[in-house]
Amino acid sequence: MSLTTTGEASRVALAREGAGKLMHRCKVLAQCTEKPGEILRTFLSPAMDEVHGTMRPWMEAAGMTVAVDWAGNLRGLYAADGNESAPRLLIGSHLDTVPNAGAYDGVLGVLMGLALVEARAVRSYPFAIEVIGFSDEEGTRFGAPFLGSRAVVGELESNLLQCVDGDGVSVADALRDYAALRPETVEAALSPRAAAYLEFHIEQGPVLESRNLALGIVEGLAGQSRCNVEFRGRAGHAGTNPMKQRRDALAGAAEWITTVEAIAKRYENAVATVGQIAAEPGGVNVIPGVVRCSVDVRHAEDAVRAAVVQGILEEARAIAAKRGLHVKIAQYHEQPAVKLNAELVALAERAAGHAGYATKRMTSGAGHDAMVIAPHVPSAMVFLRNPGGVSHHPDENVAEEDVAAAIHMGLCFLDEFAAHVKGKGQSA
Ligand code: GLV
Ligand code: MN
Ligand code: MN
Questions:
Q1: Which of its termini does the chain have fewer beta carbons within 10 Å around, N or C?
Q2: pTM, full prediction
């Protein structure tokens, strides 16, 4: 397609204006937190209600109809001109955070949807845009991630509903209470008219910066496994029990954690992380009797990930047997690797090219809502350069000019997608 100089100049101006607004909005939303002094927003929390309350007027001012579904997802619909049955382009990401988070992970992708709706006011398209702010991608509250997007695609299975938070509240109970207090919530479901899903996200790594690129096009996402591993020995007096007569759960866990690292290193590009550990009873002069650890394993090939998980769990059993400990393993999260839709990936790449940006195709090691949506709706993802590759950290950042690049590219994506939708209509 050919772009006129005027059209291109107005896109650049809209992108610049939109980027400034988006950066400001990220700062405003960063104030919505459960913990003063840091950013923390978990599934179905009052801080998330605050985000919804802040975003709703922005979305309504952009001409969107806004609702929250029973899984706590914020949904804003910008209808296609006069066409109720038009296909929908979904643009989204998540609004929850890790503990002590940065201001951009997730939030940026939701605000990108809003920025594109605001900037598209100059044109009309043959498709509606639904902006979705998913309620949980990080899994901070329940350990299990993607609760928001899983609800939307109908995949909140019973093992996930039974996960409990630090207060012993289950996902099922939290959802029931949430909806009971908010009778206005709508169905958490995917529109049958959903034709594509587009997610913008900061890269959360250093690759784009090292290549001097503002934008990357994601082709696929690494699969994930998460397990809880509990070692149970015998607590006792730290001064009176000889070393040979102990069943120290923490010493066993420590030995196991070093094998987790060693096993992951045997497989190229595999990563395994023990991110949580809790020892009981936790006395300075008491041998630890019980230790609970989390482990998170990722790889772009499911067979490799399965091999790493198997190796790690075999080591846990072997170390426990050797040390006279009991081990209890719960494998509670399996998310297969995902390849994104080749046609949409190429479309996103073309859109970036039309906007004047060279890109690199990438595989995401981080999990994103696109993983859950992609098996149901053709999906594409765009990464924005992340200075220093710092993410899941308060220093997380993105440059305003790279946000402008993403908005500019996104506007070209909308044009390309309009042609794609028309083409599909003609060939149907
Ligand atoms: C989410 O950011 C994850 O990859 O765990
Ligand atoms: Mn994250
Ligand atoms: Mn994220």
A1: C
A2: 0.89
